[in-house]
């Protein structure tokens, strides 16, 4: 089990960011490893904050991860060999059967029906 706890703070402009915290303020800097399809992700940075026992973790999304399919990134405490967090990118045809895609399509159709109904009500008055 890891002595660290990682919480996502944002995912913006191709970079996942999180706050890594430990209960022990004297803990050494963590050894963070990020993998995608069992391959190491390069460019990961761990930056100490002004508060002891806290670090900002930044994971750049490599260009090869952008495309059709589901891509799952694992963020690991390398020293404890445990998963701290993960995030997933989904895109393309794989989403055709995804419930969230279906909900988005239903919302779009509902908006279209609302506009048509309102237009019909105005025309028949």
TrEMBL record:
This is Uncharacterized protein. The lineage of its organism: Bacteria, Pseudomonadati, Pseudomonadota, Alphaproteobacteria, Rhodobacterales.
């Amino acid at each position: 089990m890891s002595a660290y706890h990682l919480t996502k703070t944002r995912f913006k402009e191709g970079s996942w960011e999180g706050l890594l915290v430990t209960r022990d303020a004297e803990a050494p800097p963590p050894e963070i490893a990020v993998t995608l399809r069992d391959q190491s992700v390069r460019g990961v940075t761990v930056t100490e904050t002004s508060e002891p026992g806290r670090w900002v973790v930044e994971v750049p999304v490599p260009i090869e991860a952008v495309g059709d399919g589901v891509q799952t990134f694992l963020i690991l405490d390398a020293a404890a060999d445990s998963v701290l967090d993960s995030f997933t990118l989904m895109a393309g045809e794989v989403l055709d059967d995804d419930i969230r895609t279906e909900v988005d399509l239903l919302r779009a159709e509902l908006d279209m029906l609302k506009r048509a109904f309102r237009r019909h009500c105005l025309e028949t008055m």
